[in-house]
Amino acid sequence: MFKGLLSDARSIAAKDPAAKSTLEVFLLYPGFHALIYHRIAHWFFKRKLFFLARATSQFSRFITSIEIHPGAKIGRGLFMDHGMGIVIGETAEIGDNCTIYHGVTLGGTGKEKGKRHPTIGNNVLIGAGANLLGPITVGDNAMIGAGSIVLSNVDADTTVTGTKARAVKQAGRKLAPSVELDHIHVADPFSQELCKLQVRMERMEEMLRRARPDDALEDADTIAKMNKCGGKGNETV
């Protein structure tokens, strides 16, 4: 277990530019401390010592503000950056070398039994405040944008973002796995939908002009002005 934790600490130190040394990670990083407690709690859980498992995870939650159910399966090299408010459910599974930012929830959607939490592949990055709910699968090297709500499967090598998460990038080039996610220069799904509505309105206005060229012209011009999308970058749908 110690060798595995040492490997985890070195992985975190390599990922985090703020880390000065592996020793700093060992002593001062709550995300790493939560991993230590989870390894212990999971060991108890697998041996059906459920009370000890829960007691250990609850103590970890009190110390680190990170809540990981002892039944969750976590691979090597998980980096919980800042960590505050992370919640990981009982049947969640996380692969190797993943990065999870603060406020992330890997949760369920109800009181169903069995597998009810997400399965996360290797080299996945999950941005701050994202919610991944239900027995969904996130493929290797995927990136989940900050604040996204993910309720369905995410393919490997895919970036999703938005309150109703949609894919915005996929396998066009090799993504840097689990290291960085550009939270700014990604498509805004809401803006894209507005622009689609703008195009439809313009087509309808043109049809109205052709059908009633005299008395409809003034009304169509007024509607066009009221529904124009502003800002650059909205011309292409």
Could you describe the 3D structure shown?
This protein is elongated. The protein has two domains: 169 residues, Hexapeptide repeat proteins (UDP N-Acetylglucosamine Acyltransferase, domain 1, 3 Solenoid); 38 residues. Helix content is 36%, strand content 16%. Strand 14 and strand 15 form a beta hairpin. The chain has 237 residues and is α/β, with parallel strands linked by helices. It has six helices and 15 strands. Strands 3-6-9-12-14-15 form a six-stranded mixed beta sheet. Strands 1-4-7-10-13 form a five-stranded parallel beta sheet. A four-stranded parallel beta sheet has the order 2-5-8-11, with no helix packed on it.
SSE layout:
Elements: H1 2-15, H2 22-28, H3 30-46, H4 50-64, E1 67-68, E2 73-74, E3 79-81, E4 87-88, E5 93-94, E6 99-101, E7 105-107, E8 119-120, E9 125-126, E10 131-133, E11 137-138, E12 143-144, E13 149-150, E14 158-161, E15 166-170, H5 189-211, H6 217-226
Parallel strand pairs: 1-4, 2-5, 3-6, 4-7, 5-8, 6-9, 7-10, 8-11, 9-12, 10-13, 12-14
Antiparallel strand pairs: 14-15
